[in-house]
Every structure is written in structure tokens, then in C-alpha cells.
Amino acid sequence: LLLAWDAYPPDQTFSRSAPGLPSFSVLVTSYNQGTINFTQVTQCIQENDPVPIKIATVSDSGIVVLFGVVSEGVPPMNQASS
Q: What stretches in the chain show pLDDT beneath 50?
């Protein structure tokens, strides 16, 4: 995964020398690169904390699919519902 850019909201106080935290960061990968595993996604979330990430995948034909990723966790599948 490649950190391609940080997205900042339009704001009158934005400064290149002190931009503050972005609204989110975009990581880019190619369809041809294979699948992104859970460990890679978790590592990206931790490294970019507290800024949320979006993962963009790009096909050879130029189709872009963008996924929002959150660190809320995955509910356990082996526990009975209460």
C-alpha cells in the first residue's frame, strides 16, 4: 500500500507550513497487486491514527474503487448472541 495523499477540508486557517490533521488519508493499490490482508489494513490504521484512512484500488482500465476503513473492530463470530 502506498500513502498517496492526505485530504484536508476547505478552511481559511489552512497553511502549508502547519496544515494540522487531515480529514482522512488515501492509500492506493493496484488490482494486479493481489489482495490486501487484514494485518496490512490493521497496521495502516495504527500507523495513521488518529486520522482515518481510505483505500483506493485502481484497475488497468482506470476504474477506481474507494473503501473507507475504520478501527471499530470485528465482532466475534464464535460467541452466542445474547
A: none
